[in-house]
Amino acid sequence: MGGTWGRFNIAAIVLGFAFLYLPILLLVVYSFNESRLVTVWAGFSTRWYASLLSNDGLMDAAWVTARVAFISATVATVLGTMAAVALTRYTRFRGRLLFSGLIFAPLVMPEVITGLSLLLLFVAVGLDRGFVTVTLAHITFSMCFVAVVVQSRLVSFDRSLEEAAMDLGATPLRAFFQVTLPIIMPAVISGWMLAFTLSLDDLVIASFTSGPGATTLPMKIYSQVRLGVTPEINAVSTILIGIVALGVIAASIVNKRRDVLRRREENLARERGEG
Q1: Are the C-beta atoms of 143 and 83 separated by less than 8 Å?
Q2: Residue 113 phi, psi (nearest 5)
Q3: Following DSSP, what letter does each residue of the chain receive, concatenated?
Q4: Which residue of 123, 136, 154, 208 is 20 to 30 Å from 114, comparing CA positions?
Q5: What integer pLDDT is reported at residue 89 of this predicted model?
Q6: pLDDT tens, 176-223?
Q7: Tens of pLDDT, residues 35-84
Q8: In degrees rounded to 5, what are phi and psi of residue 33?
């Protein structure tokens, strides 16, 4: 009976991963297809990557997407970290329930509602839709994800480390930047990467808040796919997959090195204390 359940679990895992990743694998493979027909394999070629570089529409959209993602992720990380600190350290200030609700609302709010609400806001204040409005919209919905990631790390943070720094003469602000921030930095970096990835992937909210000269790459891909999938779309999608994969690998390596250094420092401190 145990063997049957074991084989069933393995088969379920294999089928689940195949369902999730096989389409992505096929997309990557066909991005190196010689033929213009995306469903007919005609040999290995990198011609579509070279053709992609001369496609001004896709390149301009990619540049807009990269700028929006970097700026929005950076600002969202700062604001999300500040919000996480406020929610973790100050648990009894007036309006905390409303503040936390406003922070976490985009997590459960449908993207269509968020995009329409932001569109109405920008129209009401007379702000022309374009690069700025897309960036503000991405900051709005990605900040909550950063706050959740950083808050989960701050909940388990040992406040006695900050108190020890302040006992030695550090101000609360200096103690935060020199003690707390380096310790929670892996969570901050993870939040930034999550916000960056969400901005790269967003289509619905950007469609509501973009304007002339602010077409993002997902919007450009969607508009072209409606007329038919081209090998260039496969190529640019593969590049996006590679960028995200490299980012995840780099973050994993950095976090692993930080853990190794932290354990080494703890072992040295323990040895000195015993000595």
Answers
A1: yes
A2: -65, -45
A3: -HHHHHHHHHHHHHHHHHHHHHHHHHHHHHTTBSSSSTTS---B--HHHHHHHT-HHHHHHHHHHHHHHHHHHHHHHHHHHHHHHHHHH--S-TTHHHHHHHHHHHHHS-HHHHHHHHHHHHHHHTPPPSHHHHHHHHHHHHHHHHHHHHHHHHHT--HHHHHHHHHTT--HHHHIIIIIHHHHHHHHHHHHHHHHHHHHH--HHHHHH--TT---HHHHHHHHHTT---HHHHHHHHHHHHHHHHHHHHHHHHHHHHHHHHHHHHHHHHHHHH-
A4: 154
A5: 79
A6: 888 888 888 888 888 898 899 889 888 889 989 888 878 888 888 888
A7: 777 777 777 878 888 887 887 888 888 888 889 999 999 999 999 999 88
A8: -85, 140
Please give the domain boundaries of the chain with CATH numbers for all domains. Answer: 56-274 (1.10.3720.10)
pLDDT tens-place string over residues 227-247: 777 778 888 888 888 887 887
How deeply is 271 buried, as exposed, middle or buried, from its count of CB atoms within 10 A (0-12, 13-18, 19+)?
exposed
Q: Return phi, psi of residue 50, to 5°.
A: -65, -40
Q: Chain-wide mean pLDDT for the chain?
A: 83
What's the CA gap between 266 and 248, in Å, rounded? Answer: 27
Enter the tokens of residue 51: 């053709």
CA atoms 223, 227, 229, 235: torsion sign: negative
